[in-house]
Inverse folding.
């Protein structure tokens, strides 16, 4: 059972750094927070140098003073352990704690996250500061919970210090037991890479390393983060069992599901939709800020109700990069409800006031440097008022979906390096997610794990598992049962040709699911450079000229139950099968020999009987996101308008709108960046 | 009082490297120089290995022989100290003298400028070679002056050797005295960067370092260059007080004003306008070679009359980069007069003959490898003849301007890293400079320094100080007095929000000048990525669709004397004030909430009563630069045609042209690349 | 006399890696090879870790077992020495064998070719493994020859380990004897680089190093490869004199002619025309896969009949880069005959089956992982059948050409760094090669070497030697004799201004050949950035608007026998000579002051009396390559259609087609990717 935050009502918080400000400002700050219905502050996660100004010398008085005052204003406190920024005395005295570039060059002090997770000395020093800090604050009445470290694997998610190489060797010995097993798993016979002693082993040290090593490297990093976090979680559990434990972020090379299951009470996320404005070139058809719903959906797959530990409340920016413009009026509120729709019950803005010093002077908080009234403060106060009104209804309800886009960590990590399936994954997931969004079909981002059950899958009418290159017979068996019981399952090119080491099967494509799909792959080509994608012929279902993108597999039907749905319409394999469907039991399985593009998903959705919920009495334009949070007792539809233009709804039955309390019906205009919550 | 070169007449020189050529060529070379009216040669600045072939062994006979011969031909000699290229024996024996990359990796021997300014050993060896060299040559009758080192901070203007870290620590102790002061100035409480021992301190060692450290790093580098140069200047002053001292170049991270004030007799510059042909993509509306007038104007702000130590006399190019085509016929002469217009009284061509070996075989001199007659030689000889004719009139006269674009080192250096104001500076300065050029309004590039006085400013009717993020109350006071006494002052977005440490004020924008301007900033956005600039509405003064570029601040008029001149015409702040003007005393102060673009400057100039000098009787096309050099007794207008097309002038009164001696009137056609000098 | 492979018939082989596969597959593999007429397998070149699993412990049984079985199926074996991939135990124990980046950082284990050629320890270990391996297999009846190492200088062709610096010093002492000679040759007086002790010398350690050092560095690398290869060749010659010795590849910084002449029986090449699909941006007018004919022509210049050791038989690709699509049906066969046309008599496909593990899982072999029938297997089997039919006729015949594009290693290597002539070489060679291809004029790629004789040159009616910046008087004398005896010789801009050290002559351009050409260069400009090329006026012979690209030299006719053929038609040198021709003896010499572009070559070819062979009875479209292989007894014309469209031939006399045995005449349609071989 996934672990969720337990809140009685939607709760607002704010990140606060008292060490950045004159003490005489605190009381006014807390007073104003109280007025805005902010009841939680998060702090201390970058304060190691204050808490332990020299090795073994501790001073916890500062934050005690802050929390005493906060407590007077009814504020609850989330404390961060300060291990994301070891102080200068520490890295100067123990340079072995630093992370290193792949070439072994140490990453010096001066930014943050400059340490490695493996150094025994760093682990020891972290245990000491955390033990002392938790002891000092565990009985303070304001404290409600702990954030471990900050944004694991943010900025850097690879680690090449000497301590990491050593820890990797230990991890490998545990996994493989013998070098012979390891050599087989990594295929080291290729290019004479055979290892004959454990000390010959390192994390990757070259460009284009052995790909099986590269996959294990990512698994090791994830395990290493969890083992590092566990040291701290164990201390908190031991000393402060009354507090909850979480951490924030969703970054690479970390199995956040396992981290949460093993150590946390719930997972937290940092949501900055304005990032969508600074990389305009990536995708001309990008969902922009709405795309953050996809990330929030991933967080939901870990903790159905969760905390947003940092919710954007102004433009972001470091001094020298990440240059964001200001959110437009209404967007901060819109993005807050985007978080709420997808399961946030505790929403903590980053941050109370923009820092006047350091790298993040442009990572704006609600207040400006000068503390004068501004529209961001007013907008957050509005959310505060609304939470007070509706928070008890919404808290604890959960997002509802009948469609899942499925992924797994092995394929994500293998696909980072592997250009023959990784890019396909992103292409297909994006196409499916966008089309589901435009059609108002709520969707989950499901992560297939070793403990995933048929029950977990059978909640969904449709599962899209587009390019699982790594696939086992066990997974194939589970998926077969999913289809047999009535599910509709979609695969794409390059499915099932690798085993869990990342080696290729000596089996016809798509390997373990060839039989389920009733097809094999006869010929294929990567689409790249001057190699053009073939067009697709689907009897008018897709626009003329629609391409089968990224990869083209020529399918060979092996089973009379498998039906050819679409053919290639150009190139030397013109007329050959491109898309097949096989009915199995009560369900059906589709195989597409390419990566999914939006027109193809659009045509598929026309075929499926998945409708928008409440479509019978509500019409919503494509620019508006629709999602539903429900409990056994109640159900609420969220409408979020990401456009800078008003949106016209057709409400065909009188319905109560929660934020205004008004009953709405017929044509209703949502303003630009508007939010509507309907009681169903 | 700024330090100028003192010449009786415009003087031609040439860089000459006798060590590159067979000795039997020298006499012919000197003879031909004499024929071309070249009277100065510069040499020896890369000859350390000849002068001190092994440590402590000196041989000064070679250049004595050269100078004896030069002296016979009436040539005067500028000697360069050879410290820009330490010899192989030196760097091999003392690798600690080498500069290093930020990661600490030494920059090896093989190019030039591979040393650091901090190494005690290098300073010692430099003192020894300079003392010996000056002693050897100080009494030679040909020598007139010394160039210290060569192009300080060219190629590399950051330094990360161990000796630099150590010197930085010394510099910091002198500046801050205590670590507590330093920690406050750098805001190290952010991200737990607090320093608890001096040895923890380093120059920046990471990407995105602490920005206040990064600013101090540039100040340190500048001070360090000056302290390095001072060792040499002191020796020359001591041993050869009859010679002048200069150095050449205008490169980053060096306060060339302070360098000159403290150590030099005047500043020198190396002018290569052909660089404008090799980066065509930078700016489609670039001034191209005419843009060098802006650099020459910066040099003028240091030394109103100065030396060009290297004037381009052919295509430039290293073997593997900096690939320039040939200057077109007339351009070498045009660029020579460009230098003269802006204050050059001693103009030294680089170089007599193209080197046949080494990295710079394509950095062409006047003569080709093969020494045959060519058009470059003929063109330089023409300049020589003209200088003989007009040189006594022009020398000592000074460029005249009533408009100044103002900058300061702190903002330049802070803006290198800070993407929220640095790019604005370049945008606005470029727009103002171009529009002033096109309108033939001479302008100075003024550097605001700690010793700048009201008298320095009040020479100008208009001062543009566009985006001084770092601003003190003292500066605000000086600027207020400037306006009160009648000046017109222009600010742009992001003015006045930082103190000299680079930390942000807790004051309403624009901080120290908010009261002067009579406005504050209510809302703002960086324009970047998908964030679009608003249009500007200035009652028809700017073309429809003109954007307020780079940054948009919504202004809030705080003072009834402040008048809104233009409004934003789109985006959510449509109708809000964008440009204001306040009359203060006899002057006025303008604030523009964006960066200046050319249409906006064009409209502002329409408003101001700054006319082209001599506009009443002279009409000049936009492609021609107009500037005036004057003394108390005389005044000369230079017309420089940068176009490859002829330009038609209207001369409404009979005027003497200096180069031809002719009197011109009515329609006069300047040839492509033509030069006219009028006696006013 | 060039060394050729000696084959009685065209022979098919395949690369096979038995260590990658279960032993139970071998027999089926060999059986199927036999069926496809594959009679040679190449193996063992990456198997060091198997042959010597720990230092000094050898096990040769595995490949003996493989070869025993292969021998039963009549397969002959080429064995590769395994020195391209030193095993993990070796690099772990002896890190000094590793190659290094220019900054000295070691290139760690994990890829291939991670060693340097200089390490005495590595040379010792290589001698040991090679001696043991040759001893073990020399008497096996299946073995026919040896490949030394694999693809020398592939991936990395620069070497900066400590051992390389040391070996470079030894090489320099042998070449220069004294530091004074070296200092003069490198022009170290420039920038004070003079060396005063041998230990100060290193291979280049900076960007923009001394260019004369950079040229010697490449010569050293080439000599060093050859000396490394010689250790192995000598052992094989000593122990297995009955076997031939070769190596494969054509990579940078290696004089493959010298390598072959000194050590090998013939040269081998690895041909992957599909690389042409993955860099589409390079040249919109690229020859694409047909361009491989140019590389094959270079191989032919070393060994007129040679081995292709790796012929592409499927898409290539590493896990993380080099992403190729699949060859289209027919292309594998087409490319096989492309190799044959240009002199391949032994053609070895890479590889039998795609590897299921390691970096090259996408470098596909004939068979897929799963070993099922596919079109690639069928296509190779077709080639096998055809070779059986025609192989005895073709083997030993040689490609015929009357035109040569000439190059030399010195200019190639100097031009890598030198942007003032290197890019011109590629521009001109490409233009000539393409125009000759389109016109069906067979051409050789000739390498001018120190032992090239007049007889070598006089085989050609036309020689194009476009931009030989480095040129000696001896070469000029040889070229003069070539022209006098009737040759037509073409030069381009930048000819003859450098001596063999890469220093510039103090002679009028084009130096040693100025007198031969009867011209000098008066003015010149590089075309770069905003510098535009002039148009060319050749009395209607070139299309209006044709530019004289890359460089423009204004020619000055010095000799009444030299005639101006074309003039510049724009820019300031409009009307000046651009292209000249001088008749000398029975021949003529042309000089073009720019780089050759296709329209200019087109016009020149119109002037010359070089016709397509057999043009009197055969018309071939431009898309089809035409070449002829002949012996004294017979002659065969190959027609290769690289287009995806059919091509129409006009065959005006009845002619026998070899592959079908049919007689063809009149209009004949070649299919897309078709191959025709005519008996002449």
């Amino acid at each position: 059972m996934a672990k969720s935050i337990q809140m009685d009502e939607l709760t607002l918080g704010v990140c606060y750094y008292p060490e950045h400000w004159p003490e005489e400002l605190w009381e006014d700050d807390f007073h104003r927070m109280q007025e805005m219905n902010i009841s939680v502050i998060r702090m201390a996660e970058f304060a190691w140098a204050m808490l332990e100004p020299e090795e073994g010398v501790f001073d916890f008085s500062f934050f005690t003073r802050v929390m005493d005052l906060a407590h007077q204003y009814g504020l609850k406190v989330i404390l961060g352990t300060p291990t994301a920024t070891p102080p200068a005395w520490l890295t100067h005295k123990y340079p072995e704690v630093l992370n290193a570039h792949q070439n072994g060059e140490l990453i010096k002090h001066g930014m943050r996250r400059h340490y490695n997770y493996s150094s025994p000395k760093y682990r020891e020093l972290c245990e000491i500061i955390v033990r002392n800090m938790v002891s000092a604050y565990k009985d303070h009445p304001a404290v409600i919970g702990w954030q471990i470290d900050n944004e694991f694997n943010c900025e850097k998610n690879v680690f090449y210090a000497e301590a990491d190489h050593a820890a990797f060797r230990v991890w490998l010995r545990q996994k493989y037991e013998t070098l012979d097993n390891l050599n087989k798993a990594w295929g080291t016979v290729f290019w004479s890479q055979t290892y004959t002693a454990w000390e010959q082993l390192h994390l990757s040290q070259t460009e284009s390393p052995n790909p099986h090593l590269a996959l294990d490297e990512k698994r090791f990093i994830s395990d290493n983060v969890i083992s590092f976090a566990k040291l701290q979680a164990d201390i908190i559990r031991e000393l402060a069992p009354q507090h909850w434990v979480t951490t924030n972020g969703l970054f690479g090379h970390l199995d956040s599901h396992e981290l949460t299951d093993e150590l946390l009470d719930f997972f937290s996320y940092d949501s900055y939709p304005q990032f969508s404005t600074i990389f305009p070139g990536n995708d001309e058809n990008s969902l922009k800020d709405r795309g953050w719903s996809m990330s929030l959906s991933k967080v939901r797959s870990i903790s159905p109700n969760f905390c947003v530990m940092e919710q954007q409340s102004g433009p972001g920016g470091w001094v020298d990069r990440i240059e964001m413009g200001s959110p437009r009026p209404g967007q901060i509120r819109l993005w807050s409800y985007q978080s709420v729709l997808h399961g946030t019950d505790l929403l903590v803005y980053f941050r109370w006031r923009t820092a006047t010093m350091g790298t993040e002077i442009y990572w704006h908080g609600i207040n400006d440097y000068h503390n004068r009234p501004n529209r961001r403060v007013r907008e957050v106060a509005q959310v505060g008022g609304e939470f007070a009104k509706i928070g008890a209804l919404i808290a604890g309800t959960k997002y509802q979906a009948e469609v899942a886009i499925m992924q797994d960590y092995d394929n994500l990590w293998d696909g980072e390096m592997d250009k023959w399936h990784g890019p396909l994954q992103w292409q297909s997931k994006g196409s499916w997610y966008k089309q589901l969004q435009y059609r108002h079909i709520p969707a989950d981002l499901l992560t297939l794990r070793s403990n995933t059950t048929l029950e977990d899958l059978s909640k969904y009418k449709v599962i899209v598992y587009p390019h699982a290159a790594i696939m086992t017979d066990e997974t194939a068996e589970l998926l077969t049962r999913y289809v047999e019981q009535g599910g509709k399952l979609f695969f794409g090119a390059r499915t099932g040709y690798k085993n869990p080491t990342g080696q290729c099967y000596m089996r016809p494509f798509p390997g373990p699911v060839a039989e389920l799909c009733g097809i094999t792959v006869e010929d294929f080509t990567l689409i790249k450079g001057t190699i053009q994608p073939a067009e697709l012929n689907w009897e008018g279902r897709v626009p003329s000229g629609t391409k089968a993108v990224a990869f083209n597999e020529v399918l060979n039907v092996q089973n009379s139950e498998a039906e050819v749905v679409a053919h290639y319409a150009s190139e030397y394999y013109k007329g050959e099968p491109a898309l097949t469907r096989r009915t199995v039991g009560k369900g059906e399985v589709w195989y597409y020999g390419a990566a999914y593009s939006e027109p193809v998903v659009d045509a598929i959705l026309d075929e499926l009987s998945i409708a928008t919920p409440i479509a019978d009495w509500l019409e919503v334009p494509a620019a508006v996101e629709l999602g539903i949070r429900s409990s056994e007792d109640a159900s609420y539809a969220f409408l979020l308008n990401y456009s800078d233009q008003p949106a016209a709804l057709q409400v065909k039955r009188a319905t109560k709108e929660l934020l205004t309390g008004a009953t709405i019906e017929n044509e209703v205009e949502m303003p630009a960046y508007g939010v509507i919550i309907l009681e169903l």
